[in-house]
Design a protein that fits this description.
Blueprint: E1 3-7, E2 13-16, E3 21-27, E4 34-39, E5 48-54, E6 57-65, H1 69-79, E7 87-92, E8 97-104, E9 119-127, E10 132-134, E11 142-146, E12 149-153, E13 158-159, E14 164-170, E15 178-183, E16 186-187, E17 190-193, E18 198-201, E19 205-206, E20 211-215, E21 222-225, E22 228-229, E23 246-253, E24 262-267, E25 270-271
């Protein structure tokens, strides 16, 4: 079973699974080029590997229009409108369900106008970020100890109490950014990835009604207090860290011991293919 759903930025959607649209063929689920970065010293045989960066992903689909050809041809053109920029592509099979942001490279192509029961449409999508993501934010049930009592926490996983540590398991193929939300009161709140030694520290007092949110995603980093930009409160030694693949140990600390402070960390696993 293969099922694809695309929703554009205007909210128009098409499901490619059963009538009126059937997904005949899809390419680009796994194949992405890598740019190998290396350096060569004078007299060196070969070179020294430095890093690899992935190129953009291209997804191509062949779609069968099973009925009401003219009507559904117009629907596909409306949904896959390249003027609307990025939409969301969701791919499902018998094993997994993944999503990726994508924009149409052109208006869908309808190569054959001859009378037939099944007519084709060709759709090509461009995905600037090559990683497939889970369609949900990750988080696991856990507990913390405070004052000799044990409290259970439900999704999303939250911190409470000064100096608390927890495990965060990134089940994806690569590093993944996190979304962090602080609910005051707190003084100079800090969240550290003990696995890498990196931390994010906000040099600011948060009142009981204050909510601080931040994102560590490349190209979309932000720090906000009650929705307003608060980037200038970041400690200069901070790093917008990401979760390494596998197990990460996270800790939260504050110069305020209030039991009302809450910190929630969320992320989506990232995959090289589906």
């Amino acid at each position: 079973m293969q099922k694809v759903t695309y929703t554009n930025s205007r909210g128009d959607s098409a499901e490619l699974y059963r009538a009126p649209f059937f997904l005949n063929k899809i390419e680009g689920l796994g194949d992405v080029d890598a740019d190998i970065q290396s350096q060569k010293a004078p007299g060196q045989d070969g070179s020294t590997y430095i890093d690899a960066t992935l190129s953009e992903r291209y997804v191509s689909m062949e779609v069968a229009i099973l009925k009401d050809y003219q009507l559904n041809r117009q629907l596909l053109s409306r949904v896959f409108n390249p003027k609307l920029g990025e939409g969301m592509l969701v791919y499902e099979n018998n094993v997994s369900r993944r999503e990726i942001r994508a924009s149409s490279e052109h208006v869908p192509i309808f190569p054959d106008n001859r009378p037939s029961i099944q007519k084709m449409a060709l759709v090509d999508l461009f995905c600037p970020n090559p990683f497939w993501l889970d369609t949900f934010y990750e988080g696991k049930e856990m507990a913390y100890i405070m004052g000799g009592l044990k409290f259970g926490l439900s999704l999303p996983t939250s911190f409470s109490s000064r100096g608390f540590k927890r495990k965060a398991n990134n089940e994806g193929d690569v590093e993944t950014p996190v979304l962090i939300e602080f609910k005051g009161p707190a003084v100079n709140p800090t969240v550290t990835n003990e696995t890498t030694g990196e931390y994010i520290k906000i040099k600011r007092d948060l009142g009981e009604q204050d909510v601080l949110t931040l994102s560590t995603e490349f190209g979309q980093k932000y720090v906000r207090i009650n929705g307003e930009n608060a980037f200038h409160y970041i400690d200069l030694a901070s790093t917008f860290w990401q979760l390494k693949p596998g197990e990460n140990i996270l800790s939260y600390s504050s110069n305020n011991d209030s039991i009302n402070t809450r910190v929630a960390v969320r992320w989506k696993n990232r995959y090289l293919g589906v």
